[in-house]
Write a structure and sequence with these properties.
The chain has three helices and five strands. It is α+β, with helices and mostly antiparallel strands. Strands 1-2-3-5-4 form a five-stranded antiparallel beta sheet, covered by helices on one side. Strand 1 and strand 2 form a beta hairpin. The chain starts with 7 loop residues before the first helix and ends in an 8-residue tail after the last strand. The structure holds guanosine-5'-monophosphate (5GP). Guanosine-5'-monophosphate binds next to strand 2.
């Protein structure tokens, strides 16, 4: 699928829409979900224009993929979420109801996640 440069996360990356940043650098951005499904609900995105999981894994070089996943650990550890646990979710495509066509990972935590998502 071709990248839609007007998707919401592209606008967030261009700072056309504000977000509450948890961590950001030249390669990745982590920010709070506007409609949290748990007490802690963070979205992590690579800054490169990748639509979905397949695109992320196959179009980015391995070091970018590894960097992204390492930053997930850093964010989780930085907020102390590793103490009690967390859930990572990637919604991919129509059947998973992926809303935003810029690859992202959900980090859910802060409470027992039974029955959530
Ligand atoms: P998906 O269903 O694509 O995996 O998840 C998209 C997520 O983006 C949803 O959890 C939704 O609440 C979140 N979201 C949609 N628009 C915005 C926005 O403008 N700002 C933030 N922070 N999150 C958003």
């Amino acid at each position: 699928m071709e990248y839609d440069k007007n998707n919401i996360f592209a606008k967030i990356l261009r700072k056309e829409i504000p977000c509450e940043v948890v961590y950001g650098d030249d390669q990745v951005l982590f920010f709070y979900d506007i409609n949290p499904q748990a007490k802690v609900h963070i979205l992590g995105i690579p800054k490169k224009k990748v639509v979905d999981f397949r695109d992320f894994i196959l179009r980015l070089d391995q070091s970018s993929v590894q960097y992204f996943f390492t930053k997930i650990i850093d964010v989780i550890n930085g907020l102390g979420l590793d103490q009690k646990g967390y859930r990572l979710i990637i919604n991919n495509g129509r059947d998973a109801n992926q809303e935003v066509p810029h690859f992202h990972i959900h980090i859910l935590a802060g409470e027992n996640l039974k029955g959530i998502r």
